[in-house]
Specification:
Blueprint: H1 3-8, E1 14-16, E2 22-26, E3 32-35, H2 41-51, H3 70-81, H4 91-104, H5 109-116, H6 137-145
Antiparallel strand pairs: 1-2, 2-3
Amino acid sequence: MEAPDLRTTRGSDVTRLDDGTVVIDIQGLHARRTVVLRQWEDAVLAAASRAGDSWLFRPDSTYDRDGKNLITALLRLTVNQNRLPERRIDLRRGRTTWIVRLLSAGTPPTVLARAAGVSVRSLYDYLAHCTDPDLDGSDEHRLLRDPRPLR
């Protein structure tokens, strides 16, 4: 999710589907449904439960939801309250890591582009940072010789 998505998402936008997948229905200019990574599902569901119909991100905030400093202020506050070392937390870098991780895992670009709210073409720049799966020669031959749909 990008900063504008975080500022406008409500707890009620988070849902656990019948198959157990946790999704967030993002509203606004790039409206879409995105899937939460398994390792974050419980934390996101807990935050959504606390927020209810209020904002998922800082539900009690009195900040202007359109203000660009909302997320920076929270991150700074979190670092200070938890006595963490001062370091710059960069949402874009986190988003880049998420995209590269999913591309490296073989997520189809069309699926990832929809979830990220971007064009497939915009994913091209991330490919330089992707890692190859650990395949031996026969696996590579099979993939290139006999491509199969996911179903």
